[in-house]
Design goal:
14 helices, alpha/beta, Rossmann fold, 405 residues, 8-stranded mixed sheet, 5-stranded parallel sheet
Length: 405
């Protein structure tokens, strides 16, 4: 079994029938070289006994927040400090909801708040529960906070239904954890990403901006980290948590983003321009608030630098991935942008009909010289992972050509 690279892993087990799989998962983790401690919810003990996990891991199992022996020394905080990684498998719909809303009414949910290490969850539930809007919204909340969602997969379920909601098999969870431990397709690569919008100052209280939420760029940053890359994220103003393992630089204007990008572009292997950078900025921002004294206000606007085009024009520069949000003629406009800026790849998405800006879901038409691939509508976190699958293949082709030239 491949070593997961995690020395101390905290395994949370919640009350679902898939808890029996977690025994094998714990065994595989121990065999891989991880030190494993198990925390069970009260409901989980109805499916598998704590003694079973203790026998597999060689460590006592914790179930109760109000354990006088351990809590005299703030045992739950010590557990949180001990862990290098936290994995909850299975993660039931109920427990995902409690995580999403920050409840801390038992030991495991308290640890979710106390742990500052990467957290992964392996959902397991009936297909109708999995498809429920409340569950999907809770997952989106968790993903936005950097929680890694592992699965689920589709298949026969204990209730007799067949479909999505089945917990990943232990070996597949192990493979996913391995990719989270810098063993992914971009292991060791330096990646620079821009995300969000820019705000161009009109006066001290007003700005010109756009509706980009930054969700796609942040999802992409998290996906790159899960695939082993070292990521710097230059972000415009957003209301999002930084994905674990990402170094974030906050900016406001296009000129600030331009400066941050070129301050960090050295030795970058891949540059992903996901930000919706303002094309123009007010030529002369006012020092004082503009008063409403006339029927019309005319702003003189000047063009902002084209960050993506400048990076693409660098001699021996990085592999360039651009993004294009279009309201019409998606493929035609995207192909024109790819050629005009001499990019290696471009991901184009339609805007409108609950897709694109300020939405959790999107689709992408990914194009490159000589090919294209349509990625269907899905959650942006999953979409980012799908995009990396396409990017990984084309990047390897690019690297092969570069070495052969």
């Amino acid at each position: 079994m491949t070593n997961t690279g995690m020395q101390n892993l905290l395994l949370g087990v919640t009350g679902g029938i898939s808890a029996y799989k977690s025994v094998e998962l714990a065994r595989l983790l121990v065999v891989s070289g991880a030190r494993v401690r198990v925390v069970m919810t009260e409901a989980a003990t109805r499916f598998v006994t704590p003694l079973t996990f203790q026998a597999v891991t060689g460590n006592p199992v914790r179930c109760n927040l109000f354990d006088e022996e351990h809590e005299a020394a703030m045992g739950h905080i010590e557990l949180a400090r001990w862990a290098d990684q936290m994995l909850i498998a299975p993660a039931t719909a109920n427990f995902l909801a409690r995580m999403a809303h920050g409840l801390a009414d038992d030991l495991l949910s308290t640890l979710c708040l106390a742990c500052s290490v990467p957290v992964s969850v392996a959902p397991a539930m009936n297909l109708h529960m999995w498809q429920h809007a409340a569950v999907q919204q809770n997952l989106s909340i968790l993903a936005s906070r950097g929680v890694n969602i592992l699965g689920p997969t589709s298949g026969e379920q204990a209730c007799g239904d067949s479909g999505p909601g089945r917990m990943l098999e232990p070996v597949d969870i192990m493979a996913a954890l391995g990719s989270l431990s810098n063993r992914g397709m971009f292991a060791g690569k330096q990646v620079l990403i821009t995300a969000g919008s820019t705000q161009e100052t009109i006066d001290p209280v007003r700005f010109v901006g756009n509706r980009s939420s930054g969700k796609m760029g942040f999802a992409l940053a998290g996906a790159f980290v899960r695939e082993g890359a070292e990521v710097v994220l230059v972000s415009g103003p957003v209301v999002l948590s930084t994905p674990p393992g990402v170094r974030r630089i906050d900016v406001q204007t296009a000129l600030q983003m331009h400066r941050a990008v070129f301050d960090n572009i050295s030795n970058v292997d891949i540059f992903a321009a996901c930000a919706a950078v303002a094309d123009y900025r007010p030529e002369q921002p006012e020092e004082q608030k503009i008063k409403k004294t006339s029927e019309r206000l005319v702003l003189g606007m000047v063009k902002n630098p084209d960050i993506l085009a400048e990076v693409a024009a660098l001699e021996d520069g990085p592999y360039t991935l651009g993004f294009a949000a279009e309201t019409e003629n998606l493929a035609e406009n995207a192909r024109a942008k790819l050629l005009a800026k001499k990019l290696d790849m471009l991901a184009a998405n339609p805007v409108g009909d609950n897709l694109g800006f300020e939405c959790d879901d999107n689709s992408l038409l990914v194009i490159w010289p000589g090919g294209e691939k349509q990625l269907p509508v899905q959650n942006k976190r999953k979409l980012a992972q799908s995009l990396l699958g396409v990017l990984g293949q084309q990047y390897q082709v690019h690297v092969g050509h570069t070495k052969g030239s």
